[in-house]
Amino acid sequence: MGRLKTHWLQILTHIVSLLPLAILIWDFRQDRLTANPIQEITLRTGSYSLILLLLSLACTPLNTMFGLKSVSRLRRPLGLYGFMYACLHTLNFIGLDYGFNLNLLREDVFGKAYIWAGVIAWLALLPVAITSTRGWIKRLGRNWERLHWLVYPAALLSVFHFLLLVKADRREPLLYAAAVGLLLLLRLPGVRRVVNKLRDRLKFPTFLAHSG
Ligand code: HEM
Fold first, then answer.
1. Which residue minimizes the CA distance to atom 42 of ligand 1?
2. Is ligand 1 within 6 A of the CB of residue 109?
3. Rounded to 5 degrees, what angle do the CA atoms 37, 40, 46 make?
4. How confident is the model at residue 110, as a pLDDT?
5. Residue 106 belongs to what domain range?
6. Confidence category of residue 180, pLDDT binned at 50, 70, 90
7. CB 38 near ligand 1, within 6 Å
8. Is 132 in the pocket of ligand 1 (CB under 6 A)?
9. Which of 7, 106, 123, 195 could form a disulfide linkage to 110, CB 3.0–4.6 angstroms apart?
């Protein structure tokens, strides 16, 4: 029963993660991507990437605090889809927006802090994505976990990247910043102990605590 539930959760994850891409392609073909489709693709893929990265980071705390084992198995696909959108986001910007003209890119954006924040975030995610296979998990042993901590600075840098490029209403990037902050806090052993005590005191439903 547990295995079946995990299987369906995984299928749902693939659908939910790929649906925005399908809608993006559909809107593109229907000419519904605003007057500036390239910018719209950059904005949408950037947002999808950040949302999926945060969902991926939420999986471990949900498992350690509420025993949601099946959710912890979604961490890898969600993270990889987040990285996929980050690649599409970067490729769209460099390829479609700038036609891979590195000289033009250098003149226009290389001095901009938000671009560097985005590039470093992407570079931090690259080794994480490459080493997310079972073979690498075995090969790297304990170092694998250390390496995968890079997802946190990558998420923080992505939020910073967003924050720097927003000129007026900063509520959305600040909301993402609060989410990353909360997820980081929940990884601290002291905070985890307090939450676990609170969970026991509130008698959190046991069916959620054994959903592996
Ligand atoms: C992990 C990597 C990255 C993430 C998660 C990310 C995320 C985001 C987000 C959330 C936005 C704002 C979307 C919105 O306003 O709705 C954005 C915008 C943008 N990103 Fe990234 N980004 C990343 C890497 C990069 C890289 C490497 C570049 C360029 C080389 C880049 C270039 C841009 C540009 C130019 C915009 C603004 C588009 C505009 O306002 O016209 N990003 N990104």
1. 118
2. no
3. 140
4. 83
5. 2-209
6. very high
7. no
8. no
9. 106
Q: Give this prediction's pTM.
A: 0.92
Tokens read off for 137? 């998990």
Q: What is the mean pLDDT of residues 63-78?
A: 89
Residue 209 pLDDT more than 80? no
What is the CA 101 to chain-centroid distance, rounded?
A: 28
pLDDT over 90 (residue 64) = no
> For the chain, how many structural domains are there in total?
1
- In short, whether 125's Cβ falls inside 6 Å of ligand 1 is yes
109, two tokens:
């954006």
Cβ atoms of 159 and 114 within 8 Å: the answer is no
Cα separation, 129 vs 138, whole angstroms: 15
Least confident of 4-8, 84-88, 152-156: 4-8
Q: For ligand 1, say whether the CB of 128 is within 6 Å of any of its atoms.
A: no
Report DSSP letters for 158-196, one per residue.
HHHHHHHH--S--HHHHHHHHHHHHHHHTTSHHHHHHHH
Confidence of residue 211 (pLDDT cuts 50, 70, 90): very low
Residue nearest to atom 16 of ligand 1 (CA): 43
